[in-house]
Amino acid sequence: MIDIHTHTTCSDGTDSPLALVKKAASSGITVLGLADHDTTSGWAEAIAALHGTMKLALGSEVSCLTVEGTSVHMLGLLFDGENQPLQQLLSDSRDTRIPRMKKMIENLQNAGYDITLDDVQAVTPEGATVGRPHLADALVAKRIVSRRDEAFAELLHNESPYYVSHFAPTPEDSIRAIRAAGGVAVIAHPFASKRGQIITPETFESLVAAGLNGIEVFHRDQSEDERNQLIEVARALDLVITGSSDYHGTGKMNQLGENTTAQAEWERLESMADQRRVVSR
């Protein structure tokens, strides 16, 4: 099984890189993609934990905003982790997360919710890239909501009055940075309409012009109709079709390997990187 989109405690997952690698190996994953939000800080621990025949496809899920203000996530995989322009792009995104979090908390407080930055920091793993999932966990800890997904559905979705956007590159800029670092770019869950605003099929033309390699088609947040639309887009534009779990540990219901990428599609995607960077023992 090839699952190229997962998260750890280095961003908003609940499993450490070590635990994720062990769990993936025991689950029968053959290629595991580690793509924490806007960071590569979990790579070293994941590599050290690797054993057996499972392979690692290292990367990051880059937070983006279109010029119209629509949130887009871009999976960058198999890039040079030492590439400074890409690392600077990731760093700039991380640096804006605390001011954004403070503003979201202020919005919630003004509406009468008993939540503070200290509450959020108390549930955020050391070194993790702070984000909305940690705010959701703090709301659960304070018994304001019962589950993380409930927090998103009721309070933290993109159309919520409490939502605050943050600095983010455009999808096109992210793709160009990923490709310049030798990696491949796959747009994550682009038609997941229940998350909020989504891009249109016409958007893909500029993404392809920037160097987009693939589309994450098989994802739990995309309906069968949305998946079929994306398959048509991918075939029309000659893009790789991927599927992934978007696993976050106990933070979400997503299970490792619940959606996967076909071997032939993975081989095609891997061949588009400027050199072989899949890690194996």
Automatic annotation (TrEMBL):
- One Pfam family assigned to this protein is PHP
| Origin species | freshwater metagenome
| GO MF annotations, alphabetized | 5'-3' DNA exonuclease activity; 5'-3' RNA exonuclease activity
Task: Using the record's annotation, list all stretches that form the Polymerase/histidinol phosphatase N-terminal domain.
Answer: 2-66
This protein's name: Unannotated protein
Against InterPro entries, the record matches this protein to: PHP_dom, PHP_domain, Pol/His_phosphatase_N, Pol/histidinol_Pase-like
